[in-house]
Amino acid sequence: MNAIAFLLPLALLLGGLFAVMFVIAAARGQFDDLDDPPQRILHD
Amino acid sequence: MVRARCPHCGTPVEGATDAFCCAGCETAYDIIHGAGLARYYEERSEFAPRPEPVAGGWAAVPVDTLPGGLCEVRLRVEGLRCASCVWVVERVLEATPGVTHAQVSYATGRATLRWQTGSTDLPRLAQRIAALGYTPRALGVEARPDRGLLLRLGVASFAAMNLMLLHASIYTGWIDTMEPRFLALFQWTALILATPVALWCASPFFAGAVSGLRAGVLHMDVPIALGVAIMYGHGVVTTIRGHETYLDSLGMLVALLLAGRMLEARGRRRAAEAAVSLAASVPHAARRVTADGVETVPASAIAVGDTIDVAAGEEVAADGVVVRGRGHLKRALLTGEAEPVEVETGDRVEAGTVLVDGNVSVRVLAVGKDTVLRRMAAQLESAADRGVKPTTADRIAPLFTAATLLVAALTFAGWTIADDVSRAIPITVAVLVVACPCALALSHPLSAAAGLGAAARRGLLFRSSDALLDMSTVDTVMLDKTGTITAGEMQVTDAADDVLRIAAALERNSIHPIARAIVRECAERGIALPFASDVRETPGVGIEGVVGGHAWSLRSGGPGIVNLLYPDGRVAGQIRLADGLRADAPATVHALHARGVNVVLLTGDHEVAARRMAAAAAIDVVLADCDPEKKAEYIRDARGRGRTVLYAGDGLNDGPALAAADVGIAMAGGAASSVLVADGVISSSAIAPILAGFRAADACRQVIRANVRRSVVYNISAVAAAAAGLVNPLVAAVLMPISSGLVIRGAFRVERLMRAAEEA
């Protein structure tokens, strides 16, 4: 069980890392427009 | 610092390569992109004219001055979520000293403010709106997507999933006893994860609840906020004491509700954006004739008394009178008539009409708000505001909240008397937790978003879910003729291939609607176009040129007839054109009849033409020779007889009828203001999407009813169980996702039900 004391914060840290990455991406507007970019590719 | 150019108007700007020079440009850019016309920016040869800028804070936003020392301004207010939000904004503004009038429309999110000049000003009023938690925006600045909701959803989902894992461990620990220090570790970790969820992610619900309470309305946010507050408060206390918590339920509740809210907001935003791009028809530039020549200026810079040049294909920017030149003018926006009329010196022209051929100079008589177009549009918009209908969930909410609080109070009192306070507190908390109406709050937005999406995919965009739901009760459909059951543009009805071939070769580069119809017909028949040389187009007269070594000319042979002539004037062939019935009109009318819906043709055209078109479309009731007011009169009549009326039309002249009907549907390509007044817009060149609207409404209503029923049954039984002391955090953690899952599954049924209806 002692392993959990080590693994739990580690797992949260890793998960939290992805959550922070998502927040940064969203705050920079990566998800503002999910429809136009795939369409624009077709115009090129 | 990088020197770059504004992507829209080309003004040099400093900063990133995609920086705009002004908000106006960004709006235009967004609209063009939103309509899927991004190609425009690659294919144009010159930068676009600069639209009216609305930058530099509220002090710079133009305010209209009215007689009597009043100022008026129209704004968009964002963040309006329900009827009570509108109510709050209106009330607060009206209570501001100096404000004489404040009206907010939920459907369009627009506010009209009027105040005594000098007693207050726009920056202060905007500040008032912002202080309430809503975002005022100058009209014309498009909204950015709501990133806040997405961020909250992301954080809440992360926390919810981890909370679930932690609590799964805690629950299994109950069976297979867990060491206290690990239990404490898990519980404190859970509390840390739950804190941002309760304090930040759930803030929209708290804000909604507070504004609702301030307005004296108990809407859906109130019980939700109550549940979240109870769960978190209870969690903090019990974690310190080392008892079980409801924090996993809290995480899931907030994540699910945010997801539902985001889906609904996205659906609404899409419809609104699509409507705006369909409605984008006001010209932004005009060519002003000055002593030094002709200069291109923003339409807003045109003043009464100026002279402007209008070339073929251009929209007239202001009302005025023709002082030079001649041409054909398409007045479809104003009159609904597809056929262009001839204008020459001395004739009136109106803003928003399109010169299809020729070249005229116009002396300006009225601009901006005073133009016929804007006056009619303003009238329509004020007529179209029919207030907000609360959703089923919103209607249940006050009752529901009151009942919950009553049951909680009784439970607390009962258990205190029967047992003691230490036993009564956890049971009362359980009652408040399971009473939190997650499924009920999800039922409407999810089903509505699914219904709006299903209808939109089939070519019918609704402005609100209310309008969609109203469709299922419609028993009378009234249709306009030109542009609604007909295509609204000339089509070749009769012509020999050889004649068409030569005519199309001559007209290949002309933008006249008749020319376009001839060229289009050629393409449809698969006729290859020969080369034409020496082509000369004389506006208002015709076109001539050489095809295959012979000289030809095209002349009008009366309404709907084009003659191909030899050089000596003999007629070589004839092309007949008419505004034809839409291909899907008869089938649509049949399907409506099969549904038991009355179909009526309502037109300003004369009886004979209307009857002929009605017969072709299998419509048996015709009301001809209607002016705009008479159409609205017929509709009000029918409604007075207990009918629920849907009206579909495309012109500015259809505005009163669209506003009078229970459900008004505008056509893409119709008048901008008809699109803005209508409850829905058909986005393709077809009439059949009306059927999709009916099917989506039926499916949506059926699903919402089932969902509300389900969640009410769940809540009542869960509250009863909790009051009996049978619910602990584990039971709550299992029950809540089951009820919400059923509601979510129900929303997916909308699309399935629609497919089934389409096959039947």
Describe this structure in words.
The complex is a heterodimer of chains A (44) and B (760). Chain A is mainly α and 44 residues long. Chain A is built from 2 helices and no strands. The longest helix of chain A has 26 residues, at 2-27. The radius of gyration of chain A is 18 Å and the shape is rod-shaped. The termini of chain A are far apart. With 760 residues, chain B is an alpha+beta fold. Chain B has 5 domains: 3-43, no CATH class; 58-138, 2-Layer Sandwich (Alpha-Beta Plaits); 147-275 and 396-449 and 699-759, no CATH class; 285-366, Calcium-transporting ATPase, cytoplasmic transduction domain A (Distorted Sandwich); 459-479 and 583-697, HAD superfamily/HAD-like (Rossmann fold, 3-Layer(aba) Sandwich). Chain B has 25 helices and 27 strands. In chain B, a hairpin with a 4-residue loop joins strand 20 and strand 21. Chain B is elongated, with a radius of gyration of 31 Å. The termini of chain B are far apart. At the A-B interface, helix 1 and helix 2 of A face helix 5 and helix 6 of B.
Question: What class do helices, strands and sheet pairing of chain A give?
Answer: mainly alpha
Sheet having the most strands of chain A: none
Radius of gyration of chain B: 31 Å
| Strand/helix succession of chain A | HH
Estimate the mean pLDDT confidence of chain B. 79
Q: What's the oligomerization state?
A: heterodimer
Distance between termini of chain A?
Answer: 57 Å
Shape of chain B: elongated
How many DSSP H or I helices of chain A? 2
Taking all residues together, what is the mean pLDDT of chain A?
Answer: 78
Number of strands of chain B: 27
The helix content of chain A is over 70%
Q: Percentage of helical residues of chain B?
A: 40-55%
